[in-house]
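Homework help thread (please don't just give me the answer)

Our assignment gives two proteins as sequence + structure token strings and asks us to describe the second one. The first is just a warm-up. Here they are:
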Amino acid sequence: MRDLILIVEDETSMAKQLKWGLGDLYEVEVAGDAPTAMDVINGRDPQAVILDLGLPPTPDSSEEGLRLLEEIVSRKPGLKVVVVTGNTQRENAVKAVSLGAYDYHTKPVDLEELRIVIKRALYLTRLERQVSELERLVEDKAQFFGMVATSPCMLELFERVRKVARTDYPVLIQGESGTGKERLARAIHALSDRSERPLVIIDCGAIPETLIESELFGHEKGSFTGAHARQIGKIERAQGGTVVLDEVGELPLPLQVKLLRFIQEGTIERIGGRETIRVDARVIAVTNVDLKKAVEEKRFREDLYYRLNVVPLHMPALRQRPEDIPVLARHFLEVYSREIGPRFKGFSSSALDAMARHAWQGNVREMQNRIRRAVVMAEGDYIQSADLDLGEEVGARAGPVRTLREARDEAEIAAIREALVRHGGNISKAALDLDVSRPTLHDLIKKHGIAVTR
């Protein structure tokens, strides 16, 4: 099947010329105005677009063509748009490139040059799709019991989990909130010989202090007011399995003594009971508190700390493993898109850039919430930085307030200067590196007043 090229041109003779020049290589469809063009783009998904800026109802200006270009780039970021203009004011062409056009040509069009540009555009599109597919394969291989990562620090952590799961030693998992510490604890249990036995998770920070002892160790009937029946504690319910003490740093000091005795001797006593009960349960402690500091401040028992810290595992913050940000983002987008029906193709480049710059104080949990919200509220085929509510922060980090045009100009200048330096001032090689035509680069150099030295 041949690639589909959409020509958006209101002049019949020009449209016929372009169709004749490309028809031997590609399937070509023509649209004479913006609404028809968008219908073709949404319905037939062309691989490239040739766009005339002078379109009805204002064929003598570039207003309608630029508006259509902006809509195409917003809705189909991966679609390559080659602009054709009869307007002698090059600033319109430069503006088109800054809006996201792949390249531009002035009328009359050199068909041979246009064929080369289209060929390169389609080749680049195929490469981008192959990269996207490879990234999807990498993501599939990067999943570890619900956690997704490709960064070296996380892969090393997963390997440590596999090793420690083969033992019954206590494990202390520390890290910031939202990093996935509980998931790591679940992975240890799932990989252990206890995986068929109970996994009991106790949120020590969520249980009132007056009830937590009973929740952990149970009580006998009549042991206190309101104890109308015997209650089996959660530690006892984990018999043969694993007990996860989430936010263990919140445990009151008196209870830390009882927990220490259980870890040392493997026995508990219910409140009001006289019987010593032996419980065979592995202990995994989880906390976002610096327990070593808590020990120094006398808020946590030192002997309990060392009993829990037999195998320490640290869950790194998301900002410490930036390689995982795009992989996690694609994973969550796929998960949440399934819930409401797939309608997104991915993230725009601005969204990926915004996520890379964001501090992620809430870590993976924050990313989940932002993407879940974006999936509900976003429009178009790609998630934008504004949908993630990240655009404002990125702007704030950039220093003084700038207009979008100023930001684009700065990015253009930096990219052009770097390319010229790399190639010793050779315009042709720099243009090839920047993926624009030689005339386009000449115009950009002239526009920004960039000095070219060899």
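The one we have to describe:
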Amino acid sequence: MAVAPPRVNVLGLSRDDYKGLATTLCAGCGHNSITNHVVKALYDHGVDPYRLAKMSGIGCSSKATAYFVERAHAFNGVHGRMPALTTGAAAANRQLLLFGISGDGDTASIGLGQFCHLLRRNVDCTYVVENNGVYGLTKGQFSATADIGSVQRKGSINELETIDIAGLAVELGASFVARSFSGDGAQLVPLIRAALAHRGTAVLDVISPCVTFNDHEGSTKSYRYLKEHDVVLHDLDFIPRQEEIEVEYEEGTQTEVELHDGSRLRLRKLGREHDPRDRLAALQVLDQGRRQGEVVTGLLYVNPEAADLCSRERLPEVPLRDLGEEELRLTREQFAALQQEW
């Protein structure tokens, strides 16, 4: 009996072409679910593996870059330094599609300073935070994203204020900010695709329960807590620029955000009237969610008009490695004119 050929995307690649090594994370880890959603998003989006650059630091989350798109470029840096590496890669080669994978420790603790400056510079990259509220590699201590009152597996209660990664991203200038849950692929996959199409820093704060250290009664990042307290802002559809939009909805039931490449993110209201283009509204909905013990998920904020770092600095589209001496070195006349200006 003939075997049907595998389905392929617009580049003629199968979904298997976007897979990587076998995971070494704990069975049931939310990070593995995120990897599967990343694979689907990259396949559906038709990302060229040789243009993709996977960036990561240290932690359970940062191991994830080994588990998808084996043929892509990859740089696994030291703890908390991934934002600086990503900034350098973006400046050196604007042809790369930069995809960072980090964790709540790598981003909100040792890497917090670098993360903040990546946001305010609006570096063109997709930045996924696999957020479980604990340090999985060092036996489950609270991380900086643990909620006040959250209970550790051994009974300790977190009394320190939490760092809200999504709120921080909105505050400091990221031009695309969303939150999702590792178990909600229907929401996360279109968000990843929209982040890939966005020009600027696209932060995805993905709550990802740690089955070993943070999936028990009293944890605010367990599977059960997320399912009981998840408040979804929108029903999402990502429409690539090559697809014609034919379906129309009644006025007031949906809104669309057009990204710089012509792709669109269609948002259908689900209870809360939230406009993701309103920066203040994004901060308010996050604050309200925290006060009510809710985990608000969906597209929180987007500004398609914001200039990214390389555009603002007028860096060339040609990778810096391909520029010759005549393009990088001033002539005697140009140098003399520059001296005259001073």
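TA reply:
I won't write it for you, but here's a hint about the kind of observation we're looking for: The longest helix spans residues 30-45.
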